[in-house]
């Protein structure tokens, strides 16, 4: 709340002479109720002007103005290659770098001047909660657009698609090849990330809760398989390919073939109020521009993304949110 205080000023004109006489003025500062009164009487009568204390509510800044003034707070989980802290202690990853570029184009940061986004590390269950509680301003990292999520948050149009795969110990000792295996067998335990839509798919296919363990981050999923607490982990294929490229297959390998019924699309996640204010539309325009001028593909290539992993300018969050779209790749709404 901003409070502007003005002076109660009373000016009495004692008289008017041909050459003008001195005016006696008396001023003092007081606080009075909210009201504005003006009285102006000309010639020889009293001239009085009273301006009383005016209380003005500070207008709430939109995300664009606030981010320019205070910084753009970006929530992420440690999930290479989407978003992570590298060995130099820097916040990076495909989605983080896309966000940096978009923030620069929006005029929120000046990269040449050394300005940067603010990275906030949260556990996966805390991402949406942190967004809605105003601890962060957006979530860029690998959150697929699902109808239930659209009920509580606003999504940008997606720019990447990914399938789902499984990682197992070398040789795949349990011969784990599909979600259907979990529905038909009780001797396989898989490690999953909390909040993943994979859980819903398994529930739909009749998989028992006894067949899976839930963890906040992927590094814990990996440890569960390495230490024998779980027989496999299920996650997005982009992460699997990146992990195996960097770490090799001595401890874990990809289960091939692996049958999974869905592909997923992801973009950035905002508060519903940011959609209502027009910020998400502005952001969508920037992401579209990055797709068209090749910057999206350039950033993706640095982290192992291929042309098949990226979506074109017509990909629509509306299609993903409605669940009514032409295919799993791009979520183009049914016309």
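^ structure tokens above, recovered residues below v
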């Amino acid at each position: 709340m901003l409070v502007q205080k003005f002076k109660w000023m009373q000016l009495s004109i004692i008289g008017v002479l041909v050459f003008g006489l001195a005016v006696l003025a008396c001023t003092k500062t007081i606080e009075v109720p909210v009201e504005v009164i003006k009285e102006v009487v000309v010639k020889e009568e009293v001239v009085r002007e009273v301006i009383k204390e005016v209380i003005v509510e500070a207008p709430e800044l939109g995300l664009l103005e606030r981010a320019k003034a205070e910084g753009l707070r970006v929530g992420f989980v440690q999930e290479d290659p989407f978003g992570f802290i590298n060995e130099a202690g820097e916040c990076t990853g495909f989605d983080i770098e896309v966000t940096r570029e978009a923030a620069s184009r929006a005029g929120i940061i000046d990269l040449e001047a050394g300005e940067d986004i603010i990275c906030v590390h949260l556990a996966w269950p805390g991402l949406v909660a942190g967004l809605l509680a105003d601890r962060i301003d957006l979530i860029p990292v690998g959150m697929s657009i699902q109808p239930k999520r659209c009920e509580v948050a606003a999504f940008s149009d997606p720019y990447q698609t990914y399938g789902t795969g499984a990682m197992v110990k070398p040789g795949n000792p349990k011969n784990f090849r599909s979600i259907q295996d979990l529905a038909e067998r009780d001797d396989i335990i898989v490690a999953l990330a909390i909040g993943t839509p994979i859980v819903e798919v398994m529930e739909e296919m009749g998989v028992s809760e006894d067949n899976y363990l839930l963890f906040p981050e992927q590094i814990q999923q990996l440890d569960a398989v390495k230490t024998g607490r779980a027989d496999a982990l299920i996650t997005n294929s982009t992460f699997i390919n990146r992990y195996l490229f960097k770490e090799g297959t001595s401890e874990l390998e990809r289960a091939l073939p692996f049958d999974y019924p869905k592909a997923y699309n992801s973009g950035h996640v905002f508060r519903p109020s940011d959609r209502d204010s027009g910020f998400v539309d502005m952001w969508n325009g920037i992401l579209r521009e990055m797709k068209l001028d090749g910057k999206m593909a350039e950033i993706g290539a640095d982290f192992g993304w291929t042309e098949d992993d990226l979506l074109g300018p017509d990909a629509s969050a509306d299609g993903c949110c409605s669940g009514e779209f032409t295919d799993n790749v791009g979520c183009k709404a049914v016309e």
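Residues 1-52 have pLDDT under 50 and may be disordered.
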